[in-house]
Write a structure and sequence with these properties.
Elements lengths: L10 H22 L12 H5 L3 H6 L3 H10 L17 H7 L2 H10 L12
Length: 119
């Protein structure tokens, strides 16, 4: 009965076969993975800090902006434009009446918070 031939790879050949197999896996993953859309691309914090937003927006035409606004749900943003130099908090607190402070606290209460006694 004839015996089957057995191939014995040397240690270097085993590494070479493993490297080719790994390269095929990586190439396949890269080839079949979806490309990130340019619009949703992630940029680094440093790039964002040095970005000229006005210049970037000037490159976008009005039709693209209108289309984006139509497709994007409305989200409210609040921007605090005051600085600590604009308001002297200690002076404001001392001049505010107890009733004004109670009213402010009641209006800005979080859900589940109880109202201040005396109001």
């Amino acid at each position: 009965k004839p015996s089957a031939r057995v191939f014995r790879f040397g240690r270097m050949m085993q590494y070479a076969v493993a490297a080719v197999f790994a390269a095929l896996l990586i190439a396949g993953a890269w080839y079949f993975s979806p490309e990130a859309p340019e619009q949703g691309a992630v940029i680094s914090h440093d790039s964002a800090m040095h970005m000229n937003v006005a210049k970037e927006l000037s490159a976008v035409n009005e039709q693209e902006i209108a289309s984006y606004l139509e497709q994007t749900p409305s989200v409210g943003y609040v921007i605090n434009t005051t600085t600590s130099e604009d308001i002297d908090i200690e002076e404001y607190i001392h001049t505010a009446s107890d009733e004004e402070i109670r009213q402010y606290l009641d209006e800005t209460a979080e859900p589940g918070e109880t109202k201040i006694k005396g109001s």
